Amino acid sequence: MTALRTVTVDGSPVHVLESGTGPAVLMLHGSGPGTTGSGAWAATAQALGTSWHLVAPDQAGFGRTPIPAHSRGGLRLWTEQAAGLMDALGAEHYAVVGHSMGGAVALALAAARPQQVTRVVAVSTMGAPGAPLSAELDAIWAAPAGPHGARDMLSRLVLDQALVTESAVAARAAAMRAGAAAFASLFPPPRARWADELTLPARTLAGIRAPVLLVHGAEDRVTPLSTAALPLLEHLPDVRLHVLGRCGHVPALEHPHDFRRLLTCFLGPEQGH
User: Which helix (H) or strand (E) holds 122?
Assistant: First the structure.
């Protein structure tokens, strides 16, 4: 029930993992080097089963999706490409789940496409006005391709270091090497400007009509709860926040059962149009 394919969006290829049937859910990965749609979401998609039509693209500059000609990447491109992908797939209405950078894209997409986006789940999200670049995110964006960089990055992403296994390090190192050239163009130093670009103006957040669920780890050092999630409570009209204790930046990996339960409840049949 899971398929990998390439969809053409505005003349540029987008590599996509798809699974299941039913209401459409767009799943957007974060910004770490070597991150892909399938790497971020395949386990969650498999566990959720076939109740939804899950769509997890490699965003431009990641995995097998190139940055279109005459573009640098960034929030506007990722938002427009996500909207164009769902248009190309014929999805008239859809929920969006976004992790970290993908959360900022999800919120921007909800603001840009209020008639299409039904719900947003923003996980360990970026996007809050004025949120600074954390030292941890700066280090992740700067991580060199290879085993040392992969181990250092993964150790910053999770609280439980037992999750930083040799197989996880090897897989991420390979993905980092494969995507090194494209990733180098996305967040060159000084990097605070790219974090600023991923913040949304208060007026944009205030205009989001879709209900938003924020999911955040209490020990997240990459996008800390105090600067990333809590400020969004003041700006989003229809929002709720679920905080997971003993959790770093990747709830889907660190607390998979709780994370799937939250998704299942929030993305239930009552979301539909």
Answer: strand 117-123
